[in-house]
Amino acid sequence: MNATTAASTCSGECKGTTEGHFHSSKSIQHLLDNNKKWREELMKRDSSLFDRTADGQHPPYLWIGCSDSRVPAEEITGLDPGEMFCHRNVANLVVTNDINVLSVVQYAVESLKVKDIIVCGHYGCGGVKAAMENKHIGILDTWLRSVRDVHRKHKEELDALPTEEARYRRTVELNVKQQCLNIFKTNVVQHRLGRPDQPGIHGLVYDVKTGGLKELKVDYCGYYAKLVGEDSLHAFPDGEPTMGLAHRRRNAILDLADGLEKEPGMVRIRYMARMLKREADLFSPEEVDEAIETIKGQMDDPNNSFMNVKHLIAYFAPMKPKENEALAQLPTLLTMGDARGALKHDHSSSCIDHDPHSLQHLFENNRKWRDQVLQKDPDFFERTAKAQTPRYLWIGCSDSRVPAEEITGLNPGEMFVHRNVANLVVSNDINSLSVVQFSVEKLKVKDIIVCGHYGCGGVTAALKNAQIGLLDNWLRNIRDVCRTHKDELSKYKTDEERERRLVELNIQEQCLNIFKINMVQRRMGLYGAPRIHGMVYDIRSGILKELEVDYHGFIAKHMGVFNLHTFRDGKIPSTKPEFQRNMILNLVEDHEEEPGTVSIRYISRMLKKETELFSEEQVDSAIKAIQGQAKNPQNPFVEVNSLVSYFAGDEATA
């Protein structure tokens, strides 16, 4: 074997260009072709779908699931675009200080008003397994701490199980239940649990061996009774979650009056009338006016501009005798906070009882889908259950109209997925970085895709700079993109044009954010993968297209700033000889016995481990050829330059 043979370039899978863009390789063209077929088939089935969903999304479900490529949310539930808002991360976690997932929950509950929130885990979860093994795995260590907390909390139950597999499966279930409770504890959810727009919270588990979904029972009432004191800041006004109209009306009145009394128990009539009329799900304007007139007619001074809150509650929320006694005992010196505590009612009222039929549609769809898969490929689930080997990592928006696997036509097992509001990759977001680490280091994906879409609600909200709570902080990253490209965006005449261009710029920025991650650059420099692609989806047409991202231009412009993370020669390698050279230089770093030399035994052993770049025969032939040309063939050391020259050619010598 000679240098010329060794220096043959990679196949099309290592394709790059001197301009530093990753153009459509066969792998990306495959997705674009699938997208075209999917769009045509969908148009035949429902020609008005894209027109109908383009102007807004109204999904009844929020899905929080694992990124695992074998658990494609929309596919296993049989839902169409527009029916399910989606967030996916490693091990389907809802961490209380994770702004990524909390932004998704806030947007789904407050803006989209979803009816049901689903947390779905799956047996065979790599994240749960990694947490139980407790290995040192970088960023993932911190992310998976939440799973270890679940394991520690239920240690006695888990230790009593007979096998490791049984403990593994039970941990998956317990983790799902804990994440349901974590959602239940969030203020944005609890605030609605006593109202008509309360979302149901469901725990599901998916079996990768059978393709089946099942629901887990989560004891919200037991949890609430146990921790109501500790979680009082997030509790309901009367200390127990309730569902009757009278209770919901009372809770709304107490909530609106809280902290606004001129005197204890007294609130301004004009303010209260205005605010109650805004709660259209609970009060009609006519009811409010009638209540005010009735109460004023019973007051000592009908011209008084203030009214007693307990009179308003008594009008709208007539209660049982015990409850009326508690209300009657309210002295005027009580603050509204005390009033809330005094308004405890008996525990006969219902807790968070979910509609048992609300998910029946999904289970029926799941059975049909599973039967269809088995009919086409009887061994499919058994084969994919052993391990996942996805080629792609997809980082996309949570928008219900952009189901990743559906629009790309990929099967379960082919694409690892992370979805969040506005498809962001933030440098200090452990959620998305854990997904990137798992997919790059563990799964060794070949392509990373960042996909945004025109008509993105997150981008629109960022442009308008509206005050939207927690989402403000998450969307600040898009405002940074807007500020960076302010001159370009200001040239567009309409808001729609600016929004569409900002969607594209945001995608390109997130691609660069991934490109800046050290673990990504390291694998790109050593193996030529993953390649990073920007794509944009048009919800009005269903068309997926690729955007160009200038990585070389970024390197040239910011070489000094990102010097720690750049490639060895300041450019992106694109051929196998370049990857082989980089690997040799990486392996000998800090292992040189003398400057420029390395132990033959060490380098031979290490190169043979890198089977993506070197075969055992190639390594043995290289060592033999170099030793044959050396002055002392018995020397246990080899010159690094000679090794690099053999594999990569003279022009690539270090």
From TrEMBL:
Q: What is a GO molecular function of this protein?
A: carbonate dehydratase activity
Give the UniProt keywords, A-Z: Lyase, Metal-binding, Zinc
Q: Which InterPro entries match?
A: Carbonic_anhydrase (IPR001765), Carbonic_anhydrase_CS (IPR015892)
Question: What's a GO biological-process term for it?
Answer: carbon utilization
Residues the entry annotates as binding Zn(2+): C397, D399, H453, C456
This enzyme catalyses: hydrogencarbonate + H(+) = CO2 + H2O
Which PROSITE patterns is this protein grouped with? Answer: PROK_CO2_ANHYDRASE_1 (PS00704), PROK_CO2_ANHYDRASE_2 (PS00705)
Q: Does the keyword Zinc apply?
A: yes
- Required cofactors, per record? Zn(2+)
Cofactor binding annotation: Binds 1 zinc ion per subunit.
Enzyme Commission designation: 4.2.1.1
A Pfam match:
Pro_CA
Q: Can you tell me which family this protein belongs to? A: Belongs to the beta-class carbonic anhydrase family.
Q: Write down what this protein is called.
A: Carbonic anhydrase
Species per Swiss-Prot/TrEMBL record = Phytophthora cactorum
Classification lineage: Eukaryota, Sar, Stramenopiles, Oomycota, Peronosporomycetes
